[in-house]
Amino acid sequence: MYLLECCFLRFYLQRCRHAISRVKLGYVLYFFGMIALLEFFGAFVHLFEVTYDENFVYPYEGNIHEFVNALRRNEKPEVEPINEYKYAFVLKQPQKCKEDADHTLRLVYIIKSAIENFDRRTAIRNSWGIEKRFFDVPARTIFIVGMHPDDKEIEAKLKLEATIYKDIIQADFIDSYYNNTIKTMMSFKWLVKYCSNSKFYMFVDDDMYVSVKNVATFIRNPANYPFYLMESRKVYSAHKREIKQSDLMDYKAVSNFSNENATFNLKINKMPFKSFAIYESINNNSKKDNVYKKQDGINENLRIENRQLFKLNTSVLNRTKRQLFDFELPDDIRLFAGFVFMRSAPHRHKFSKWYVSLKEYPYHLWPPYVTAGAYILSRQALLDLYYTSFYTKHFRFDDIFLGLVAKKADILPFHCEEFHFYKKAYTKYSYKYVITSHGYGDPNELLQVWNEQKALGNA
Ligand SMILES: *[C@@H]1O[C@H](CO)[C@@H](O)[C@H](O)[C@H]1NC(C)=O
Ligand SMILES: *[C@@H]1O[C@H](CO)[C@@H](O)[C@H](O)[C@H]1NC(C)=O
Ligand SMILES: *[C@@H]1O[C@H](CO)[C@@H](O)[C@H](O)[C@H]1NC(C)=O
Ligand SMILES: *[C@@H]1O[C@H](CO)[C@@H](O)[C@H](O)[C@H]1NC(C)=O
Ligand SMILES: *[C@@H]1O[C@H](CO)[C@@H](O)[C@H](O)[C@H]1NC(C)=O
Ligand SMILES: *[C@@H]1O[C@H](CO)[C@@H](O)[C@H](O)[C@H]1NC(C)=O
C-alpha cells in the first residue's frame, strides 16, 4: 500500500515537476526568443545610443579650425592629420581644367563612375556632360574611377577610352561600393590639386539625369530656386491640354507669385525637410520657429551665417523677378547643396545593408547630410571640406562621411527638393525644374529623356 502510494505520489510529483518545467521552459524559450528578436531589430542598440544633440563629437576631437586654416595656407598644422587617402593617380589629366589659361571655370562636373560603365559615360558625354553647352557657363566634365587590377581587358579598354577623351581620372584603389568614400575623397583631392579654378563643383553618380540648365540657374540663387522662375498660370493655360493633372502641382503653387507669402508658404508646407533659410525669414511665427529650432538643434551661428549667405531677407521678397534672376552668390560663399536629410537615424537592425554598430557610430542621429547621388559645392566649401576631412575619422558611407566632415567644418547643408534622390516619375512636363534625378542607369533612356527636355528648353 505504502509502496503503491509512494509510487503514485512519485509519479504525480514527477508529472507535476515535468509540467512545471515544461511551462518554465516555454516561458524561458519565449523570453529568449523575444530578446533575440529585439536584438535582431536593434532594440537594445537603441537603448545604448548616445543622444546626438547634446553629445556629438567625432574624432578628431578638438578644435580643428586652426589646423584646417594652416593646411589651406600650405603650412604645417600643430597636430598631424588623422585621416588621409593616399592613393596615387594612375590617370590624372592635369591639363583638364587649365586648357584656357586665363579662364576661370564656372562649373566642374565630377562623375563618380564604376570602371565597367563604358556605355553610361558615353551617354553622359553625349547629353548633359557636353562641355560647351552654354557659352557663358565655362564647364568641364570629368569621370573618376578606381581599379580592377585582375581584369586586364577592362583596364586596357579604360586606358583607350581615357586616351581618346582625356576626361578620366583613375586612382589605385579597388573599385567597389564600400570604397565609395575613397572615390569621393580622391575626387576632392584631384579637384583641389588640379582644378581649383572653378566657382562651383557638382558631384554626380553615373546613373543620374542632370539638367545643366537648371543647375546653372540654381547656383545663381539657390535660396529662391525654383520659385522665382515660375510664371503665372496664364502662361501655362496655352498648354493646358498637354499638361496632366499631376504636372500641375508646381503651377498651382505659383499661381499667386505676386503674393509671396502664400506662394512660399504653400511650397514650404510640402517640404519634408525644412529649408531653414526660407522658412525662418518668411514665416517668422515664433511658435513654429521654436518647434523647428528644437527639432533640428542647429546652432544659432550657423543659422545666422546661412541667412546672410543666402541674403534671403524680406527685402529679397520685394525685388522684381528680374532682380532675383540677376543675383550672383559672393565668391566666399560656402555652399553645400542637394537633397538634405536633416535628422535621420542610423540603421540598427542586423540584416540591413546599412547596419551600423555602436562602436562605429554611437549617436541616435546622423548629422545633416546630403544624399550622395548629386550635390553641389562652392569652391570655398570644397576647400574647407577637403582639409577638414584630414581630421575626420574614415566612415564607409560617403554621404554620411561628408555630413560628418561638414558638421566639423560648420557648414550646414542646403536643402533643395529638385535634387531627386529617387527616380522622379517622368512625363514631358514634370521635369521643368528638376535639377537631378536618380535612376538613369540605362544609357538609352537617359539620352531620350535628356533630348526631349533639351528640346523643351528644360535641360
Ligand atoms: C578598397 O580599396 C583598397 C585599396 O585598393 C582595398 O585594399 C580594399 O580591399 C577595398 N575594399 C573593398 C571593400 O573593396
Ligand atoms: C490667388 O489670388 C486671387 C486673388 O488675388 C485669389 O482669389 C485666389 O484664391 C488666390 N489663389 C491661391 C491659390 O491662393
Ligand atoms: C506677408 O507676411 C508679412 C510678415 O509675416 C505680413 O506682415 C504680411 O501681412 C503678409 N502679407 C500677406 C499678403 O499675407
Ligand atoms: C522673428 O521674430 C523675432 C521676434 O518675434 C525677432 O527677434 C527676429 O529677429 C525675427 N526674425 C526675422 C528673420 O525677421
Ligand atoms: C537684406 O539683404 C540686403 C541685400 O540683399 C542687405 O543689404 C540687408 O542688410 C539685409 N537685411 C538684413 C536685415 O539682413
Ligand atoms: C517691402 O515692401 C513693403 C510694401 O511694399 C514695404 O512695406 C516694406 O518696407 C518693404 N520691405 C523692405 C525690406 O524693403
Automatic annotation (TrEMBL):
Pfam families: Galactosyl_T (PF01762)
Gene Ontology biological process terms in this record: protein O-linked glycosylation
Enzyme class: transferase
Keywords for this protein: Glycosyltransferase, Golgi apparatus, Membrane, Signal-anchor, Transferase, Transmembrane, Transmembrane helix
One Gene Ontology MF term: UDP-glycosyltransferase activity
PANTHER family the UniProt entry points to: BETA-1,3-GALACTOSYLTRANSFERASE BRN (PTHR11214:SF349), BETA-1,3-N-ACETYLGLUCOSAMINYLTRANSFERASE (PTHR11214)
Similarity comment text for this entry: Belongs to the glycosyltransferase 31 family.
Protein name per Swiss-Prot or TrEMBL: Hexosyltransferase
Organism: Lasius platythorax
Lineage: Eukaryota, Metazoa, Ecdysozoa, Arthropoda, Hexapoda
